[in-house]
C-alpha cells in the first residue's frame, strides 16, 4: 500500500502547493515512485506547476525525476451505488490507480472546505498543514482570546481533522501523523514569533500534531513556478553557484523533509 500524504488547510496563501511540489519532487529525486492528485479543481495550482515542469523539461531536453500526476477521472452518475457521492468515487478511483505503482501518493487540497477535502483528510497517513506564522493563520487551528491570546478551543478545521481521525480509527487504520508546517517565519518581530510558537506548542499537546519548520518568504519560489522547478533542480539546469537565499531555502527544505519522518525515507541532499 502506498503511504498517503495529504497537504491541506482551509485558508489560501499558506504555501500548500509550494510545499506539495517540493515534497513530491524531493521524494522522486530520492528514488521513490510518487503519484500526485490536485483536488483544487478551480485553481489547479499544483497541476499547473507540474504542467510547467513537463513543458520546461521537454523544451530543454532534460530528464529529471518528476511525480506522476493524475487527474480525477470522470464518473457517470449511473455508475454510482445508491447514496454514493460522486466525488468519493472519483477520488477513490484516482487513489486506487496510483496505489499499485507508487510508494507515496500526495494529495493537495483546496484552501476551502469541500467534500473532496474531507474525504482526503480521512485517507491521510501523513497530514501536512502549512500555515503562515501569524495569529491570522493560527485561527485556522484554534480560536484565541484577542486580549490574552489564550486558546479558547479548536477551530472548525481542527474539528474536521479530528473527525477524519475518528473515521480512520473506525476503519482500523493508524491515526494520521499530523504535521503543522510554519511557513514565512520572519527574521524580525521576535516577540510575536515567540508568542505564536508558545501557543502552537500548547495547542500541539492539546489536539495532537507535531511542528515542523517550513519555508521563509523568498523570491526564489516565485521564480521557480513558471518553469516547474524546485530547489533541488537548480544544478541540473546549469546553476553552478547558488546565492545565499537559494542555499538557505534548500536547507529549509531538508529540515522539513527530515521533520516529516516519512517511512523508508532517508534524506540525502
UniProtKB/TrEMBL annotation:
Residues passing through the membrane, by range: none
Gene source species: Candidatus Rhodobacter oscarellae
Short name of one Pfam family: MipZ
Matches recorded under CDD domains: ParAB_family
InterPro entries the record matches: DNA_Partitioning_ATPase (IPR050678), MipZ (IPR015223), P-loop_NTPase (IPR027417)
Protein name listed in UniProt: ATPases involved in chromosome partitioning
Amino acid at each position: 500500500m502506498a503511504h498517503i500524504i495529504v497537504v491541506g488547510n482551509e485558508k489560501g496563501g499558506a504555501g500548500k502547493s509550494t510545499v506539495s511540489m517540493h515534497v513530491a519532487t524531493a521524494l522522486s529525486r530520492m528514488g521513490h515512485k510518487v503519484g500526485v492528485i490536485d483536488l483544487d479543481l478551480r485553481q489547479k495550482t499544483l497541476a499547473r506547476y507540474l504542467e510547467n515542469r513537463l513543458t520546461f523539461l521537454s523544451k530543454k531536453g532534460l530528464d529529471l525525476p518528476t511525480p506522476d500526476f493524475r487527474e480525477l477521472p470522470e464518473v457517470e452518475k449511473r455508475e454510482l451505488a445508491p447514496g454514493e457521492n460522486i466525488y468519493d468515487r472519483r477520488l477513490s478511483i484516482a487513489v486506487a490507480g496510483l496505489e499499485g505503482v507508487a510508494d507515496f501518493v500526495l494529495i493537495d487540497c483546496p484552501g476551502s472546505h469541500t467534500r473532496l477535502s474531507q474525504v482526503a483528510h480521512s485517507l491521510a497517513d501523513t497530514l501536512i498543514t502549512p500555515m503562515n506564522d501569524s495569529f491570522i493563520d493560527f485561527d485556522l487551528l484554534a480560536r484565541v482570546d484577542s486580549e490574552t491570546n489564550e486558546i479558547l478551543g479548536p477551530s472548525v478545521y481542527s474539528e474536521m481533522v479530528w473527525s477524519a481521525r475518528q473515521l480512520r480509527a473506525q476503519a482500523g487504520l493508524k491515526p494520521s501523523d499530523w504535521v503543522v508546517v510554519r511557513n514565512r517565519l520572519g527574521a524580525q518581530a521576535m516577540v510575536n514569533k515567540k508568542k505564536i510558537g508558545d501557543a502552537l506548542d500548547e495547542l500541539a499537546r492539546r489536539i495532537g500534531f507535531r511542528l515542523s519548520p517550513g519555508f521563509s518568504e523568498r523570491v526564489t519560489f516565485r521564480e521557480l513556478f513558471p518553469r516547474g522547478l524546485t530547489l533541488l533542480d537548480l544544478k541540473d539546469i546549469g546553476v553552478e553557484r547558488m546565492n545565499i537565499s537559494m542555499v538557505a531555502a534548500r536547507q529549509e527544505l531538508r529540515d522539513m523533509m527530515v521533520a516529516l519522518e516519512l517511512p523508508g525515507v532517508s534524506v540525502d541532499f
